[in-house]
Amino acid sequence: MCQEVPRFRGLCEAAQQCWDAGASASDFEPSFFRVLAFIEQHPECRVEFESVFIELLRAPSSLAAELICYCMFRLRWPRVRVVAIALRDEALDLRRSGVMADVVDSFEDEWNGKDVYNYQPMRDA
Question: What confidence tier does 122 reach under pLDDT thresholds 50, 70, 90?
Answer without folding.
Answer: low
